[in-house]
Structures are given as C-alpha cells and as structure tokens.
Amino acid sequence: MSVVEQHLKPYSREWLLSDRPTSRKQARIGRAYVIWQRFAENRLALFGLMIIIGLLFVAAFADVLAPHNPLQGDLRYARLLPPGSDGYLLGTDDQGRDILSRLIHGSRLTLLVVVLVAVIAAPVGLIVGTVSGYAGGWVDAVLMRITDIFLAFPKLVLALALVAALGPGIENAILAIAITSWPPYARIARAETMTFRNSEFISAVQLMGASPFRIVLRHVMPLCLSSLIVRVTLDMAGIILTAAGLGFLGLGAQPPLPEWGAMIASGRRFILDQWWVAAMPGAAILIVSLGFNLLGDGLRDALDPKEAGQ
Amino acid sequence: MTPLLTVDDLRVSFPTRTGKVEAVRGVSFTLGRERLAIVGESGSGKSQTGRAIMGLTSPSAEIRAKKLAFGETDLLTMSARQRRDLRGKRLAMILQDPKYSLNPVMTIGRQIIETLKTHESVGRSEARARVLSMLEAVQIRDPERVFDLYPHEVSGGMGQRAMIAMMLICGPELLIADEPTSALDVTVQLEVLSILDKLVADRGMGLIFISHDLRLVSTFCDRVLVMYAGRVVEELSSANLHEAQHPYTQGLLNCLPQIGADRHPLPVLERKPEWAL
Amino acid sequence: MTTTALSVRDMLVVYEDFAALNRVSLDVQHQESFGIVGESGSGKSTLLRAISGLSAFQEGSLTVDSRNFNGRKRDREFYRTVQMVFQDPYGSLHPRQTVDRLLLEPLAIHGFDNVDARIARALDEVGLGSGFRFRYSHQLSGGQRQRIAIARALIVEPKILLLDEPTSALDASIQAEILNLLEQARRDRSLTFVMVSHDLGVISHMCERLAVMKSGEIVEILPADALEKRQFSADYTRQLLVASEGFRRD
After folding, report:
1. Do A180 and A297 share a structural domain?
2. Which member of A246, B30, C43, C162 lies 3.0 to 4.6 Å from A252 by CB, making a disulfide possible if both were Cys?
3. Residues C91, A201: C-beta atoms closer than 8 Å
4. Most B CBs within 10 Å: which of C200, C205, C222, C232, as the mutation test of the B interface?
5. Which of A165, A155, A308 is nearest to A242 (CA)?
6. In this structure, is residue C140 part of a structural domain?
7. Which residues, listed in sequence order, are joined to residue C217 by a DSSP beta bridge?
8. pLDDT tens string for chain C (250 positions)?
9. Whether residue A164 is found in the same domain as residue A234
C-alpha cells in the first residue's frame, strides 16, 4: 500500500475524485462532487432542480420581473381579460389585476411557507426521533405516544382546527402546517436511529466516554440527515398543497395577498367562463410541486446510504 | 472419457462506474469425480468462478470462456431455462450461511420436498420418505422432528446439514460448496465436513470446495487451485502442499499462527504486483 | 512487579431467564496478554461487553486499576484506561466520517491538546501514514479499517486493550499483519491485553494465559504453552484443540 505522492490540480476532476484526499476540504468537496455526479445522472432530477432554481430566481427578483402591481388592478379597463391580451400575458382577474404579476409575487409566499415549515418541522422531527430512538425505554414511549397523537389526525383537518383556533392568516397557517408535519420525520429519524443504535461504531464512541448528548448530536443525527432531506423535499409538494388548501378555504393568506391557493379560490366563481383566473395559479402549484418531487427523487438516489458505500 | 467439468479461459467481468472490472481473468481447469479446492483471499475471484459455473452470476456481468462444459453439455450456449433445470438436479451449490439460503417461512421438510418435486415427479408419501432418509443421511438424529421445524428453530450446524440434504436430494453429479463451514463453530465444522466427505465419497460426486482456508482444504480435498487477483497462480495436489512454489501460496501457508510454533512476528505476505499480471 | 490490572469476580449477566455469563471470575495481571477462547454462545463476547460497560452485569464485581465498577456505569477515567477493538472492521467505523474525524473524536472527548500531531503519530504507529488521514471508511480495505480502529483505541493512551475477535473477519495474510501490529503496540506501550477469539491458534500465539469458556462458564484457565504440551484437564479443551488442527479422514 505504497502511497504515491500525487500532486493534482485543485478542483480538477482527478482531484475531486481522488480516493486519497490530502486535506479536510478536499475530502468534503470530493464527497459532495460524487453526490452531485450521481444526482446529475438523473435528467428528471436536474429538471426539478431547474424549476426550483427558477422559483428562487422569480421570488428574489419579483419586483423587477412583475410587469404590474400585484395588489392593485385596473378595474375599469382590465377586468377578466383572457391570456395573451395586450400587456397581460396570462390575463387578469376580476379585480383587473395582472395574474402573471400576482403569480410572481405569490412565489415569495409559497417559498416562505415551504422554507419556514421545513425550518420548524424538520429539526423538531429530527430531535424527537433521534432522542427517542437512541434513549429507548420510557423516553421513547412518551415521545412516540405524543407523535402518535399528532399522526392520528388527518393533516389538513388538524391544520384547519389549529388555524380556526389561532385565527386565519399566513403566519398561523405556516405554524399549523409545521405542527402537523413533524411527526412523520420523527418516525423516520427514530427508525433509522434504531438501526444504528446497537452498531459497533456507536459502541466505539460510547467506549470513548462520549455523553449521550454528544453521540446523538454528532454521530446519530448526521446519519439520519440525508433520508430526512429527501423526505422533506418530497413533502414540499404536499406542504404547498396544504397551504394552498388553507388559502382556498380562506384560512391561510388573506386577500389581497397573492397567495396561489387563495387565487384559485377567488377564481372559482368564474371557472366556466374565465377559466384562466383559477387555472393559472393551479398550473403554478402543479409545476412547483412537480419540481420538488423530481428533486426529491433525485436526492434519494444520490444520497441513498446503501449506495454511499460503493 | 470426458471430464465432469471443463473450464477453459473463464472470464467474468462487471461493469462499474469507473469501467469494467474483471473478477475472474482466464481460469482453466478440468474436474473428474474428485474433490477440488479453490483457495484464495477475498476478492481473488474464487466465489465468482463457482457462481459462473452454476450460472448464478448477476445479470449485469459478462461471462466469456473458450469452453465451459458440464460433461458433454455446453453451459455457455444454454438458455436460462435449461440452466435452471440443470441446477439442483445435476449441479448443486451450498452457500456459506444457511440462515440466508433457507427460506425462513417454510419448514425444512417442505423446502426439501419442493426441490425434489421441481426436478422429479414423485408422489407425496414417496417424497416424504426420501426427504426423511436424506435427513438421516446428513446425520440428523431425529429427522421426523426436524422435518417440521422452521430454519430459525435449528442451530447453524443443523441448518447447514439441512442445506446439504436439500442440495443432494436429487443426486447431483457435481457439488459446489462455497465456504460451507465458515459460519459454523470449529467443533461443528468438523462434523459437517465429515458428513459432506462421506456423502461425496459414497455417491461418487465431483466436488468443488471454495474456501479461504488453505490448511483446511488441504486435508479435505485431493487437488488445490490457488487463486490470486482473478487468476490461478498455482495448482497443487494436497499431499504436496509443502512443496508449493509460488510465493503467494507459501505466504498463505506460513502466515497462520500455529499452536506450539513460536514465531514473533508472524511472517507477512509481501504482495508483488507481478503476481496480478 | 505483578499486580492485578483487571479483576472479575463472580460476574453474572442474565438476559431474561438465560444466564449468558454464569458467575465468572478471572484476574489479569499488568502487562499480561490474556486470551479467552470459546465458540458462539460461550459468553466470551458478553464478558468483554460487560467489562467495557456496553452491557450491564447483575451481580459480582469488577475491579480495574484498583477501582470498582458496577452495572454498566463507567466514568471517563475508565475509558482513558480501557479501550476496545471490535470484530467487524466494516461496522466499527462511522460510515460518514473521515479517518481524521474518527481519530479527533476521542481526543476531543478527553480534552487532549496538540491533536494534529497526535493524529499523525497514531496513523504512523499503525503503519498507515498521513495519506490516509482524510479518507472515508469506504475508501479503505478491511485491514486498513482495522488499523484505524486500533489507532482510535490507542490514541487515548489506554493501559488495557480489550480485543473482541479483532482478526476473524479478515483474510489470513491480513490477520498476520494485524496480529504483528498488536504485538508491537503492546511491547511499545506496555499494554495489557484481554483478547477474545474462537481461534485457538490466534490465542496461543498472542497470549500467555488463556481461559476456555463454554455456555457462560469458564471451563479452565491455563498457560498457553500447556496446549502444546497437552497439559490440560478438560475434555472440551481437547475437542477445541483437535478441531483447530483441521479435518481428518478416519
């Protein structure tokens, strides 16, 4: 096993794929590169990634991209114009507002919902799951029964109840969705933790004298992270739909906010004659949901722990 | 007389992300009704050789050979269906761990009957009688009881005996045993080996015994092929093992700690790149 | 000076209603290499796990370096004294950590300084060198992994090393390298070994004394050279010895 001193050009393909990295940075970047390679082999996943990047771009530059004011319309001359009308690419709604501009600004709300739910629900699920799985015994029993209580309710019904109690509004909708979406993450994290708990590499850390806190945080959690990321990404579509559903029922974002679900709700009245008012936000939800699903599928293949050893 | 098995220039390669990897690179041997051992370390291609003969190589792999024949039949041009018919009936294989090769939800007796019925049409009572006598032949003391047990209810040694019974029920002409005793305790190992030894001798089967343990196979087999990096580096008769010429074979023989031999440090195998050429 | 490094008295480990370890007693002297040999289910691994605190023992006592321990509670000081190497080199290294992280962890837990130099020295000691420092475990062969596991155990400078079948998952030629490495480390660091194996040859090569275990009990304790001279009393020891000599056609 002679170690041939190799001087590879940093960031070259060989440097990235080298199986004898010479620095912490190279090891980390090399690993990321291998994951990226696996991900990039999947065309559909790349397409999904493009959709999400597009969404981010649109949300970031909404003010520049939107041709009209999303909140105030031209009630006199521009009510319910069909798509392709002069200056209104996707048509206008019953308030004379440009649907394209509303969709562009609505992407911010969608992104806000998705990001906040992920930021709240995923860590809660991860902590509850790993602690419960690692500790076992009564801690596990208590935490899992709480999880079961949340799981017992249909997601939308529970979110509805919470929003009804907290009052309508986008913040409360986000909170409600977050509260209803952590239990599956806890279940996944727990199941994975259980498979590692008795493995020798965890025993080895125990034998170093590491505290349970340290073991969970530094050794168990990183292992659960990849499957959690995949699951959260795949759930994003569902979260968007739940948010839209709450918006549709009038319990999420309130008018005149250009939330996609609320837009569909208001377009419902003209669905037969002016189909585009409801169909355009519907299409936006469809495309973004599809994007997250494709991305999640690609991530699952790239991050699959079973393949990571190859 | 045609030999039982002819292998000429067998090559097995697997496609991977980084290109084709050849696990077996030109293995040739012939086998009569004798006990042949294939010995090597992990990754030497010994198991892949056995699997290729059985037709159990994974579908993505590519198998090439100048000749791969079982008696008069050419194994290379056979259809998958014909191969299946051959397996179990005339060719059989025992794997390392009975835990993984026995079906966990079927009783041992039923599994052996299944195997028998796949290849022969026999009546129910006759099948049962034959399975019981087979279980007896592998020295299971209470065959009636073991017949109705599930694999998880028996010990590793008992499971491996059941596996041998299942593999030999149709009276194959060639048996390939891939590390059949490595998962067993040392004292049980010897029992299983002596059962296998007796059956092979009584029924006049050919045996290919794949193992990493040179010492063990040299006491069990007539002839030893030593494999390294996909090739046969040396062929020896077991009796002349101490006359091994190849440094790899010598290294394998010497590196084992022995009771009573005071060798500190143990001689270590120096791998030379030219062995793999 | 021979003092007791590790002493086990009447240790009892019961799983449900089955005694995995039935009142086992043994003493290991400082700088001695003590072997435990037995087949699966003999309780040899259970004994190591109970000593290390990975599983609890219900009755009996454990004394390490004249300090007493109970159940499965061990303090940090204990793990400075006692370290363990596991059987499966594929399972004992964290799959998502580089060698660097693996070796850093024990140093961080015990608050060592000068970590870079220590990691470099540990890698040198197990014959790997700095080229391996930033590899992930899947970029290593079985023997290299076991070297890393040994480096990880030695890096906190323990006095006692528990070895649970450290070479039984490895090829014979790699086994020889690892055994040599362990012997070298023991000489250099004046370590005490407690080594478990099913292989009588390995135990007699590595150890000065050995205990033969069967169904949770110690059958007999004897010096390693007694095997060669056939000076043992238990029939089971003879069976193991015969089995280790290989197959014989009668």
Report:
1. yes
2. A246
3. yes
4. C205
5. A155
6. yes
7. C214
8. 458 899 999 999 998 888 889 999 999 999 999 999 998 888 999 999 999 999 899 999 999 988 999 888 899 999 999 999 998 888 899 988 899 999 999 999 999 999 999 999 999 999 998 888 888 888 888 999 999 999 999 999 999 999 999 998 888 889 999 999 999 999 999 999 999 999 898 999 999 999 999 989 999 999 998 888 888 888 999 988 888 887 777 6
9. yes
Asked if B258 lies within 8 A of C227 by C-beta distance, the reply is no
Q: Are residues A178 and A270 in the same domain?
A: yes
Is C188 inside a domain boundary?
Answer: yes
Does A195 contact C at CB distance below 8 Å? no
Tokens of C129: 């060198």
CB contact under 8 A, C152 and A310: no
| CA pair distance B265, B25, nearest whole angstrom | 34
Neighboring chain C residues of A203 at a CB cutoff of 8 Å = 54, 86, 92
Inter-chain CB proximity A210 and C109 less than 8 Å? yes
d(CA A250, CA A15): 55
Domain that holds residue A16: 8-40
Among chain C residues, CA nearest to B215: C246
Q: Is B257 on the interface with C (CB under 8 A)?
A: yes
CA dihedral over C125, C130, C131, C136, signed as positive or negative: positive
Q: Which domain holds residue C127?
A: 4-244
- C46: number of CA atoms within 13 Å, CB side? 27
- The domain that holds C87 is classified in CATH as 3.40.50.300
Q: Is C117 in CB contact (< 8 Å) with chain B? A: no
Architecture of domain B1-90+207-277: 3-Layer(aba) Sandwich (3.40)
Distance from CA of B252 to the nearest CA of C (A): 6
Closest partner residue to B186 (CB to CB) among C171, C183, C198 is C198
Does residue C231 lie in a domain region? yes
Residue B18 has pLDDT above 60, yes or no: yes
Q: Cβ separation of A200 and C74 shorter than 8 Å?
A: no
Residue A173 lies in a domain: yes
Pairwise CB contact (< 8 Å): B259 & C172: no
Domain boundaries, chain B: 1-90+207-277
d(CA B182, CA B47): 14
Q: Does C250 fall in a domain? A: no
Q: How many domains does chain C have?
A: 1
ipTM of the complex model: 0.89
* Residues of B in Cβ contact (< 8 Å) with C179: 257, 265-266
Which chains would you list as touching B if contact means 3+ CB atom pairs under 8 Å? C
Query: Which residues on A lie below 8 Å from C144 (Cβ)?
Result: 1
CB within 8 A of B63, min separation 6: which ones?
B10, B11, B12, B52, B57, B76
Give the pLDDT of residue C16. 81
Are A20 and A167 contained in the same domain? no
